[in-house]
Amino acid sequence: MDGSHSAALKLQQLPPTSSSSAVSEASFSYKENLIGALLAIFGHLVVSIALNLQKYCHIRLAGSKDPRAYFKTKTWWLGLFLMLLGELGVFASYAFAPLSLIVPLSAVSVIASAIIGIIFIKEKWKPKDFLRRYVLSFVGCGLAVVGTYLLVTFAPNSHEKMTGENVTRHLVSWPFLLYMLVEIILFCLLLYFYKEKNANNIVVILLLVALLGSMTVVTVKAVAGMLVLSIQGNLQLDYPIFYVMFVCMVATAVYQAAFLSQASQMYDSSLIASVGYILSTTIAITAGAIFYLDFIGEDVLHICMFALGCLIAFLGVFLITRNRKKPIPFEPYISMDAMPDSYLHNRQLLFKRYSNSRNLPHHNLESL
């Protein structure tokens, strides 16, 4: 009798214990999400400040008679230090939060650059002109902030320790292998059209960047997670998959930078920023959802709100970059039409004398 009564007491105590552990696990996942999001926001904000500091250094040296090189100034070195600090924060954020949350937060750098550009603008504007000139930036910043809030609030809470066994298991899973096959085929087709058919459309180039970038962020999360576990005492550096991921991370990042450099030579930086952000974020979230199963167990409402946050952030970044000033093309100080007729007549005479001395056929200078 006593044995059955004690067994019944044990059975009654089981449900509260399991529910409390589930609640604590959910709160721990949310806490890790918050840590990762804050690290990513901090990193992108610091990187944006660093880039603007270095840009300010170059502009000040170009506009002064200071003979020093840019790397001999304290401002440039401060920008470099802040850039390394920001990149370290973004790198560490991948170890705490899902990839689908960290990737869209790069919109913070666009927001910060827009705000820094408005605050430190050197031109004087009337209030009416100022609002008309920067209304798109204000609206874009507001939309990007709202989108970022929705991303952080409704991001997936799935967390998995980045051990060597888990990374290897995801790497050889059939959904990711199928995704890799499709991505490799698409990448080869785009590269063929870009190299052989001279398809220099910005979407083609930035799709190449986005496909490489999706592999970069997948490997970054694996490397960062395994490093954090190793620092915490669970050594993961003796797994070969760590070095495979590290090599893939470096290789894809290098080729991604090369394609971005080629795109920057042909297109405006604001257009590259907006289109590149949209394409890279979309493909990277897809890769994270397939490789790390970020959205497994999430309800439809959370997924829809997360997608809405992405769309709002996309629109905000597009409006911010759309308002940036386009570079003014170079125009010669003196055109051929503005030259005196006597100058052109003398050039024609000199050319005819040179042609007679070399037995060359006569041509009109204006037709050359």
UniProtKB/TrEMBL annotation:
Topology of this chain in the membrane: Multi-pass membrane protein
Entry GO MF terms: magnesium ion transmembrane transporter activity
Record keyword Amino-acid biosynthesis present: no
Keyword tags: Membrane, Transmembrane, Transmembrane helix
Record's protein name: NIPA like domain containing 3
InterPro entries on file: Mg_trans_NIPA (IPR008521)
GO cellular component: a single term: membrane
TM annotation in the entry: 34-54, 75-96, 102-121, 133-152, 172-194, 201-229, 241-259, 271-293, 299-320
Endpoints of the signal sequence: none
Family designation: Belongs to the NIPA family.
Subcellular localization: Membrane
Protein's UniProt keywords contain S-adenosyl-L-methionine: no
